[in-house]
């Protein structure tokens, strides 16, 4: 068995780095962190307080994603403090989402897609809509 301690980072392919940086900083609320001087463009973001990271990598290849939001597609999930506040924020910024306040998973979920059609799940411990 491999003694896994935690997830360190998630890497996503993006086509327009500035557009993706704006989405992950302004809409999702992640803070950009220092990135080593690789020989290809990209950006790193810190996630929460546990040291996890999101790495954006500029990639000109093809992806499989063509349709809308699909929760069964490959995605990553971020735990949010408030389901209600997250919905309000997405509405305020005109971001399309699939809200599942009573999800079968046992916790409320919101699915969004980033500008490069990567699926992101936002979930909360409880549904605080009322």
Automatic annotation (TrEMBL):
- The VOC domain is annotated at 6-125
> For this UniProt entry, which residues form the secretion signal?
none
TM helices/strands, residue ranges: none
Q: Which organism is it from?
A: Paenibacillus cremeus
Query: What is the recorded name of this protein?
Result: Glyoxalase
């Amino acid at each position: 068995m491999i003694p896994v301690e935690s997830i360190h980072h998630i890497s996503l392919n993006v086509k327009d780095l500035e557009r993706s940086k704006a989405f992950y900083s302004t809409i999702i609320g992640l803070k950009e962190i220092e990135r080593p001087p690789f020989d290809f463009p990209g950006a790193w973001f810190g996630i929460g307080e546990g040291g996890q990271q999101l790495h954006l990598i500029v990639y000109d290849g093809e992806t499989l994603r063509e349709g809308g939001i699909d929760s069964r597609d490959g995605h990553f999930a971020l735990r949010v403090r408030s389901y209600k506040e997250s919905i309000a924020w997405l509405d305020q910024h005109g971001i399309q989402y699939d809200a599942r306040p009573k999800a079968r998973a046992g916790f409320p979920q919101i699915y969004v897609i980033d500008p490069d059609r990567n699926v992101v799940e936002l979930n909360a411990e409880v549904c605080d809509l009322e």
